[in-house]
Design goal:
7 helices; transmembrane; elongated; mainly alpha; transmembrane helix; 77% helix
C-alpha cells in the first residue's frame, strides 16, 4: 500500500486528520490542564461550595463534561495514528475493511462533535460563575481557550466526516 495510499484522497485526508488531531490535542489538553477549574475539583471544600451554588440555582457544569472531552480527544488522537498505520500496511480500500474504515470515521466524527459541543457548554457555564480563591485572587479558568478548543474539535469532527465521505466515494486504490 504505502506511498500509493498517501497519494489517494483518503490517504491525504488521513494525514490531515493526524495534523488536526495533534492541534486539537495540544489546545484541548492545555485548556483543561492549565485551568484552575481542574484544580478546584481536587478539594472537598471547593466541591461543597459548588454544591451550595447549585442549590442556589447557579448553572454549575459537571466536571465529567471536561473529563469526557479530554478522554475523547486523547482516544481519537491515538486511534487516528493507528488507523493511518493500518491503512498503510493493509488494503482498507475495498471489501469489509473499507466499510469498517468508513464506520470508524463516522463514529469518530459524531463523538468528537459531541465532545466539542459539551466542552463549549461547560466553558460558557464556567464563565458565568463568579469564582475566586480564598485569598480573593482571580482564578485562571481559561474560558476563552476552552471555547476555542471546543470549536477546533468541532471543525476536526467535520474533517472526520469529510474523510468518511471521501473513503466511501473513492474507488479501489491498490489491486
Amino acid at each position: 500500500m504505502g506511498s500509493e495510499y498517501i497519494r489517494s484522497f483518503a490517504g491525504r485526508g488521513k494525514v490531515v486528520l493526524i495534523v488536526t488531531s495533534m492541534i486539537v490535542l495540544l489546545v484541548g489538553l492545555h485548556s483543561q490542564l492549565d485551568s484552575h477549574w481542574k484544580r478546584w475539583h481536587e478539594s472537598e471544600y471547593n466541591l461543597a461550595i459548588l454544591d451550595s451554588m447549585k442549590a442556589k440555582g447557579y448553572s454549575v457544569p459537571a466536571y465529567s463534561m471536561e473529563v469526557y472531552f479530554v478522554t475523547i480527544i486523547q482516544v481519537f488522537s491515538i486511534l487516528t495514528l493507528i488507523n493511518f498505520g493500518v491503512s498503510m500496511i493493509i488494503n482498507t480500500t475495498a471489501g469489509i475493511l473499507k466499510y469498517i474504515d468508513i464506520g470508524y470515521h463516522i463514529v469518530a466524527a459524531l463523538l468528537l462533535l459531541i465532545a466539542g459541543i459539551v466542552y463549549i457548554i461547560s466553558a460558557k457555564q464556567i464563565g458565568n460563575l463568579s469564582l475566586s480563591w480564598i485569598d480573593k485572587s482571580d482564578m485562571k479558568l481559561r474560558v476563552g481557550l476552552k471555547i476555542f478548543a471546543g470549536s477546533v474539535t468541532i471543525i476536526h469532527s467535520i474533517v472526520y466526516g469529510v474523510v468518511a465521505f471521501v473513503i466511501a466515494k473513492e474507488s479501489h486504490v491498490v489491486p
